[in-house]
Amino acid sequence: MKIAYVKRNDINTTKWDACIAQSVNGMVYAYSWYLDIVAENWDALIGNEYEAVFPLTFNTKFGISYVYQPFFTQQLGLFSAGHITHELVSKFFDAIPEHFRFVAVNLNTFNKLSYPKAKVIPRVTYHLDLIEPYPAISSRYSNNTKRNISKAVAYNVGVIKGLSAQKLIELKKGNQIVPLKQKHFDTLIKLVTHSVANGVGEVYGAYDKHNELCGGVLFLKSNGKAIYLLASSTAEGKSNRAMFALVDHFIQQNAESHLVLDFEGSNVESVARFYAGFGGSPCEYNHIIINRLPWYVNLFRR
User: Fold this and answer.
1) Which residues contact 148 (CB under 8 A, 6 or more apart)?
2) Given 177, 241, 272, 273, which residue has the most CB atoms within 10 angstroms?
3) Which residues pair with 263 in a beta bridge?
4) Comparing C-alpha atoms, which of 71, 37, 67, 40 is closest to residue 55?
5) Rounded CA gap, 66 and 102, in Å?
């Protein structure tokens, strides 16, 4: 396969997005509109005139260019409608230009890599197939999840679809677990607004018995997946198990569809347990690090 390095301004976005749409492993993160929102800069490796594509999201610090994984983008890597082999993934890594002196990216679950020049760190997401009827899916919820959904019902938590982007972002701002910068919230408002306007995003809100917003979540539907991208709840929402009600409602609404719910995974045990409690199965992807920095820069980084 002939692989070319192409600058963002020279990328044919129609062909690019068609490649992602047709890819066996296509994901919403890799569409041009999504990359334009989340990445400060991005170029790409393109194989055989958009038969396969590999986005390179990058930045520059102290004169050194590096490839990084943007916020709100769990997986990138190589996308193709054809068979993706270890050898093909390695060829694309070999094609990353030398001026990118440091690479730290998450590949997607279809990208397996045996690459001596890279450090490979396994990570886990959770997938739940929604093809079955809701009773069959919910029967496999953990006992803890079933109890928490029952508590949400007892607390009169109600769920509605169509929460505004502004309300979801305000909810997130007021209930941060991991602090985000203002630029991240600016990115989020663009993501939510654009995805909803284009029929990709669905925002749900949970309200308590006093009709106060106590939880919210954004799902992105694309390429046969529904990605649990953004969620937040108030202290009241945590107490009344609002997030359990939100996810259960989404599953009810989308059961018997050709969708896989992707929870995005977490290294935090309690969060991973929350995902697994709905019957999600662990699915591995890899974080890749390639270090081409000069020795004196590496010494400074330690």
Assistant:
1) 241, 244
2) 241
3) none
4) 67
5) 5
**In this structure, what token pair is assigned to residue 130?**
């929604």
Query: For 235-282, how does the pLDDT look when each residue is reduced to its tens digit (9 = 90+)?
Result: 999 999 999 999 999 999 999 999 999 998 776 677 788 999 999 999
- Residue 193 CA: distances (Å) to CA of 38, 58, 257: 13, 24, 25
CATH classification of the domain holding 38 = 3.40.630
* Whether residues 65 and 82 fall in one domain: yes
> What residues contact 134, with CB distance under 8 A and at least 6 apart?
251, 252, 255, 256
This prediction has a pTM of 0.93
State the Cα torsion 184-186-191-196 to the nearest 10°: 140
Residue 118 falls within a domain, yes or no? yes
Q: Does residue 220 sit in the same domain as residue 288?
A: no
176, amino acid identity: Q
- Cβ 202 vs Cβ 219: under 8 Å: yes
List Cβ neighbours of 75 (8 Å cut-off, separation of 6 or more): 27, 29, 106, 107, 108, 109, 125, 285
Decide if 288 is inside a domain.
yes
The tally of CA atoms less than 13 A away on the side-chain side of residue 264 is 20
Q: How far is CA 276 from CA 42, 279, 280, in A?
A: 34, 5, 5
The tokens of 264 are what? 């995005």
Q: Which domain holds residue 25?
A: 3-124+284-301
